[in-house]
Amino acid sequence: MDTSNEQMSDQSPHELLYTVNRRWDCLQAIVEEPQEKRALVDTLSMPRSTLDTVVRELEGADLVTYHDGVWQPTVAGEATAAVYANTVDSIRSITAAGEVLSPLSGDHEVPTVALEDADSFPAEEPVPDAVLTEFLDRIATADRVRGVAPRALSGYTDRVFRIAADNDTTLEMTLAESVFERLSTLDPETVADRLQRPLFSVYRAPVDIEFGFWIGEEPDHIGLIVYADRGVHGVVINDTPAAVEWAADRYASIQAAAEELTPADVPEA
User: Fold this and answer.
1) CB contact at 8 A, 227 and 211
2) pLDDT digits 0-9 by tens, 232-263
3) Is 234 left (phi over 0), alpha (psi -120 to 50) or beta?
4) Is the separation of the CB atoms in 235 and 132 below 8 Å?
5) For the purposes of burial, counting CB atoms within 10 Å of the CB of 235, is it exposed (0-12), middle (13-18) or buried (19 or more)?
6) What separation, in Å, do the N-terminal and C-terminal C-alpha atoms of the chain show?
7) How far apart are CA 233 and CA 97, in angstroms?
8) pTM to 2 decimal places
9) DSSP code at position 104
10) Beta strands 200-205; 170-176: pairing state
11) How many Cα atoms occupy the beta-carbon half-sphere of 238 within 13 Å?
12) d(C-alpha 176, C-alpha 90), whole Å
């Protein structure tokens, strides 16, 4: 009877994960390059007696095997190492995104697919709003951008339109009613001018989400803008197909109640 396989079958997934987590350095080294015990001692800077304990534990979990004088991964060990590494990367990206999204309430409506494998950009003092350059830079390189703005940030709204115009980006923005009213009050002539541009479409709609977001095409990606009490708390960007699909569905649900705006909708323009 194969003792290692019997031990493997007796381990719960949680026990196996505990073993991989504790002995990750050694498993990773063996997966990357099967080695003799002497080489492993040098690779891991680990006493031989300690290494004996570690490799026997991995062997008992059927993750490594000793063959022709070399420690090497089993099929299960190689696959487990790949899954573990991917999981750690996912948790790392989710944790970073979670810090950016921390101001949101429990009804935030942000699914895991929007956070997994995302890049997060927290706002930094002394100019927290500078993080919005992550948004502006992507407008400049995308063929088309669709966005939802539950709030407007002074000084940045006009930059969005100017950058889109300078780079021939097709821009479709859906604004909360209060945002459109505020912008129209502050600068009606500029707002009316934007509504006449052929590459720009602006809508107003009931927007009941706490964060802003955009969907970029070519290259495909999404971005979340999380607001602070004043300014921005951070930006999260994700280019996975699952994240883009979620954002497109969320955008469509908001657009279903949207009304396209024209210069005639701007008071005193």
Assistant:
1) yes
2) 999 999 999 999 999 999 999 999 999 999 99
3) left
4) yes
5) buried
6) 86
7) 11
8) 0.83
9) S
10) parallel
11) 27
12) 33
**Residue 193 φ then ψ, to 5°:** -65, -40
Give residue for tokens 């008071």: 267
CA distance 75 to 45: 26
CA dist 90 and 96 (Å) reads: 10
What would the pLDDT profile of 20-51 be if each residue is shown by its tens digit? 999 999 999 999 999 999 999 999 999 999 99
b/e sequence 115-143, b meaning 16+ C-beta within 10 Å: bbbbebbbbeeeebeebbebbeebbeebe
- The neighbour count for residue 213, using CB atoms within 10 Å, is 23
CA distances from 11 to 14, 16, 23, 31, 60 (A): 8, 6, 15, 21, 10
Q: How far is CA 21 from CA 9, 81, 170, in A?
A: 18, 10, 47
Strand ranges of the sheet holding 200-205, from the earlier edge strand across to the other edge:
119-122, 232-238, 221-227, 212-217, 144-149, 170-176, 200-205, 259-260
**C-alpha to C-alpha distance for 92 and 161, rounded to whole angstroms:** 34
Strand 170-176 relative to strand 144-149, pairing: parallel
- Can you tell me which residue has the tokens 């997934």? 13
